[in-house]
Each structure stands twice: as structure tokens, then as C-alpha cells.
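Take a minute with the sequence and C-alpha cells given here and flag any C-alpha cell that looks odd. Thanks in advance.
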Amino acid sequence: ASLSLASWQLYFNAAIDPRYDTAKALVPAPGALSRHLTRLPPRMLVIGALCSITDGHDAGSPLSKLLASVAIGDFWRMTLSNLVYSVGLWLFLALTFDLGGVPILAQGVDVTAAFANPVFGSRSPREFWGKRWNRQVNALLRRVCFSPLKARIG
């Protein structure tokens, strides 16, 4: 009720969650948009490289040929293959969130980083899911569900 119309429009039309301090959207640090834009080309290159070596789960892909040439069991071969696909998914989602954050940063509103190196930085499943993977959902649920519920219950 105390938010302006522009704040409501940003909140409901943004594909990426803006960062908030209580009810006010935060202003990004100087140079945040240019730093955000410089992260996009390397991610695109890595995703392109992963797509070219994976080329599906069939036996003819370069990744499958490489893993077949290594003397390891089928379990480890599938585990390594799934790890490569997981990193590719993470990078694709991070790129998607970064692209969605550009218009919001251009409007002068800071965005929540979607991920905090979840694949390689997590030491436990709890840290992976609760603190590093999809941080925007965590921030959204904290702002619209948990904080109001805590204030109401005490």
C-alpha cells in the first residue's frame, strides 16, 4: 500500500527478482550493469562448447566417445556425464537469469543473483539447495511469506 505505482509495476512485471531492503528496491552499485554484461559472453562460449561436446546422450557424441575411451566403470562414466550436463544446465540457467536482469539493472534497480556457485561451492546438499541454488526464490519467499508470517506470529 505504501509502494508507488512504478514499484508495483517493476515487482509484477520483472522476470528477475529485484533486490529489496524491506519494501524499497535497492539501487545497484556503480558499474553493475557493465559488470553484468561482461559476464554474458564467457558464459555463452562455455555453454556453446558444452553443447558441442555433449550433443545428446547418444553414443556418438564427443563426450560419450571420450568417456568410453577411459578405463572406468559404467557407474563412474554416467556420473561424469551427468556432472557435465548438470554444469551445462546451471550455466544455461545463470545465463538466462543474467539476460533477464539486464533490463532491470538498466532501470536503476539492483537484481538478486540467481546462483552462488552451487555446483562447485557447496559443501552439503542443504547449502546447495538453501543458500546457493535459486537464491531469487529464497529472497521472494522470505519477503512475501516468511517475514510477514514471523511479524504476525511473533
Summary: Strands lie at 20-21, 24-25.
